[in-house]
Amino acid sequence: MKVMPSMTEQTARRSIFEADAVRGLAHVFVRDLQVDATVGVHDHEKLGPQTLGISIDLTVREVPGPKSDHIADVVCYEDVVRKVGAICEQGHVNLIETLAERIAGACLEDYRVHAVRVRVEKPQAFEECASVGIEIERLQPLT
Q1: Which of 26, 113, 121, 125 could form a disulfide with 53 if both were Cys (CB 3.0 to 4.6 A apart)?
Q2: Alpha carbon of 90 to those of 6, 36, 73, 83, 99: distances in Å?
Q3: Residue 46 belongs to what domain range?
Q4: Entry pTM
Q5: Of 46, 67, 83, 122, which one is the catalytic site residue?
Q6: What is the pLDDT of residues 127-142, one digit of tens each?
Q7: 122 catalytic residue (yes or no)
Q8: Residue 20 bridge partners (DSSP)
Q9: Is the pLDDT of residue 99 over 80?
């Protein structure tokens, strides 16, 4: 006989990045955003921008009660895309890890964002693979 996991076990196994009505969480995401940025430690990478692929997952605390139809009442993915563009335009960074941290920090400036996962990929780094990169997760600091 197969024993089903308890609700507590099921909740513990859920990803923090899943929408969850019980916990009042929504999932906002940006997939495979293509941006040009000057990033890298090698001399040839400092000569000009390269195209990066960036994906972002946000766990957002939902406001209890009826939902409005006003953009100001949600974490707007357009704002997230614009923040990424502005960060990439700030100038050269050596590491994509640094870029990922800056993006995560910008997303966590919104108090409604509980957690953020950022993936930065360099698809042109090596001919022999589709891409290389970094993925980080950061949580809103406890206050």
Answers
A1: 121
A2: 49, 12, 29, 11, 10
A3: 16-139
A4: 0.86
A5: 122
A6: 999 999 999 999 987 6
A7: yes
A8: 25
A9: yes
